[in-house]
Every structure is written in C-alpha cells, then in structure tokens.
Amino acid sequence: MPRYRIIVDLSALRLYVLEANKVVKGYPIAAGAILTRTPTGQFYVVNKAPNPGGPFGAYWLGLSKPHYGIHGTNNESSIGKRVSHGCIRMHNADVKELAKLIPVGTSVTIRR
C-alpha cells in the first residue's frame, strides 16, 4: 500500500498530503482559470523533473492526465488565485519539499 496520497481541493486552493488517511502537510496552490479549468478526478504522478525550465519553477510532477502537472512557478504572487492553464502551481520551496516526500505513482485526487 502506498505511503502517501495527495488531495487537491480546488474550492480551498489547497493541496494536502495524506499518510494513512491523516493530513501530514498542506500547501496553498494556484489552479486553473475559468476558461482553462483544472481537471477533476483520480490521477497519479507519472514523472518528476527538477528545474524543468520556462514558467514551471523549481520542479515538475507530471500527472497521468497528459499535459497536466503539479509544478512550481516563476510568478509566486499567482499562488492563491485561479490563473493557470489547468495545472496546479505551488511555491517553489513547497513543490521541492513535496517532490522529496512523494514517489512516482502517488495517487492524486483533484476535487472541486
């Protein structure tokens, strides 16, 4: 059984890491804008890449939905807003911490 799982709560703009159904970490996020909503459903982390370049900040965690991921940002003031093209943005320090904690294969539930 996997040690961790992630729940993204779009209504609260928060990402939670759970271990044995108990929240062990919570982070503020940015999510998709009205026209480019973040998809909801059940996904998993398929890859991890440090320093992906471009607007993706310090780390990229790719999701099983192609072209979507959890990543850092080069615009930290966007955190707490609905401004992305559908991805989950995090502060760079937070996404680096998350990347160290969770392995590829971690379950990600995104809900409204």
Automatic annotation (TrEMBL):
One of its GO terms (molecular function) is acyltransferase activity. Gene3D superfamilies: L,D-transpeptidase catalytic domain-like. It is an enzyme of class 2 (transferase). Residues 4-111 form the L,D-TPase catalytic domain. Its EC number is 2.3.2.-. The keyword rRNA-binding does not apply. PROSITE patterns: LD_TPASE. The active site is at H71 (proton donor/acceptor), C87 (nucleophile). Keywords: Acyltransferase, Cell shape, Cell wall biogenesis/degradation, Glycosyltransferase, Hydrolase, Peptidoglycan synthesis, Transferase. Pathway: Cell wall biogenesis; peptidoglycan biosynthesis. It holds the Pfam family YkuD. Belongs to the YkuD family. This is L,D-transpeptidase. It comes from Paenibacillus chartarius. The lineage of its organism: Bacteria, Bacillati, Bacillota, Bacilli, Bacillales.
